[in-house]
Every structure is written in C-alpha cells, then in structure tokens.
Amino acid sequence: MDVSEAIATRRSVRGFLDRPVDPALLRGIVEKAARAPSGGNLQPWHIYVVGGDELTRLKEIMAQRITEVPRGEEMEYDIYPKTLGEPYASRRFQVGEDMYGRIGIPREDRDARRRWFARNFMFFGAPVALFCYVSRTMGPPQWSDLGMYLENVMLLLREAGLDSCPQECWAMYPKTIGAFLDAPDAQMLFTGMAIGWKDPDDPANTLHAKRVPLAEFAEFRGI
Ligand SMILES: Cc1cc2nc3c(=O)[nH]c(=O)nc-3n(C[C@H](O)[C@H](O)[C@H](O)COP(=O)(O)O)c2cc1C
C-alpha cells in the first residue's frame, strides 16, 4: 500500500469486528507515527493505548457514566466554535444526515440518534482504544501537531489492514477518562480513537463522507 492508497481508504469506521489486534503491531505504529513533524520538534502528543481487560473495565465504567451524566461532564474545550458559521455548519449537518441516512434513523427520532451516538463510548465495538493528551500549556500550533501525529497513526493502521475512528466526543468525559488513566492534571485530553478490524457488514461503514471540490478550499497563484 502506498501513501495515496492509505489516504484514499482511510475512513472513520463506526463498527468493528470482535477480533484482537497484535499488541506488538500497535506499539510499532504508535512509535513510528512519532516521525510526524512538530514545531520546534516539541512532539507534544502524549498517548495512552488501552485494550484487553482494561478496555472492558473502561467500557463498564462508561456504560454507567453515560446514564448518570448523559450530557457529559464539564468540557475542557469547545469541540466546535460556539456559533458555527457557513460553510462549516452545512458541512457538519450534511455528514450527520448522510450518516443517519445510512443507518436509517430519521431526524425526528432524537432518542434513537442519541442512543446511536452513545456507541461512541463503547468505541463502536473496537478492541483497542487510543487517547491523545497534550500539556495544558500548549496552544493551537501544538494542537495542530497532534493532528499530524494522529493522521500518521491512522495511515499506518491502514497499511496494516486496520481501521480507526478519531473520537473527540471523549472530551465530554475528561474527568472519568483522566481518573481511569491516572493522567496528570497538567495534561488535557484532546481526543480518543477507536482502533480495530472493520466490520464490513455494518451499514454505518458504507458512509463515504464527501469532500468539497478543490476550487472551494485551495487557490493556486503563479502555478
Ligand atoms: C479530531 C477528530 C475527532 C472526531 N470525533 C468524532 C467522534 O467523536 N465521533 C465520530 O463518530 N466521528 C468523529 N470524527 C470523525 C469525523 O466525523 C470524520 O473524520 C469526518 O466526518 C470525515 O469522514 P471520514 O473520516 O470518514 O473521511 C472525528 C474526526 C476527527 C479528525
């Protein structure tokens, strides 16, 4: 697989098989991904990978937390701007409609949509979870470094035949996850990620999120 194929086949997968992932392979990917560039070579990512009995324990904790505090704990950062303007609001709306269309949940059925969203907190059945933290002292440039690291992880997973779903919804439960991982207070949870083998029969995995055409986001001058 070359880079183009890894990029083209990476999708956010929301349904995984109950099939384990080789721990040595995971370690290798988490290490290799750190070849990502970062401003000043700060390498600001701090990664936790959770699987096996530990993941079972976390899923049990979360099953309880999402009933106790369904709207989440106090957020440590805004996932989206408080007022999401255009064209971003329409893009977000579109991918939501496309997703719920695939799994046949109409807009009016808010309860079903909420229940489906809650599958995030079971990692969509994935056997491995990754959490990415960053020091609270870091700002937007270092947060962008996290993105480069995480994309490397996702592409390397593709190379190994694996899939993933980045999940910033975990920012809704920073206290629970921080306590579970025993993460230092000086670190802030940016995102989680579900990792595993894609379930080809899960209708959610038929979604192919659209992208806007090149001319809408890039301008070329002098070339
Ligand atoms: C940082 C980040 C956080 C995300 N958080 C979630 C999430 O919490 N739950 C989810 O289902 N998808 C999540 N996504 C997936 C996006 O919805 C997805 O990347 C986008 O719709 C494009 O689809 P694609 O990844 O299949 O190309 C996240 C993506 C990124 C990059």
From TrEMBL:
Q: Give TM segment ranges.
A: 116-136
> Start and end of every Nitroreductase domain?
7-197
Annotated coiled-coil positions are none
Keyword vocabulary terms for this entry: Flavoprotein, FMN, Membrane, Oxidoreductase, Transmembrane, Transmembrane helix
Q: Kindly give the Pfam families that the UniProt entry links to this protein.
A: Nitroreductase
> Required cofactors, per record?
FMN
**Entry's Gene Ontology molecular function annotations:** oxidoreductase activity
Q: Does the keyword Hydrolase apply?
A: no
Q: Which family does it belong to?
A: Belongs to the nitroreductase family.
Q: What is this protein called?
A: Nitroreductase
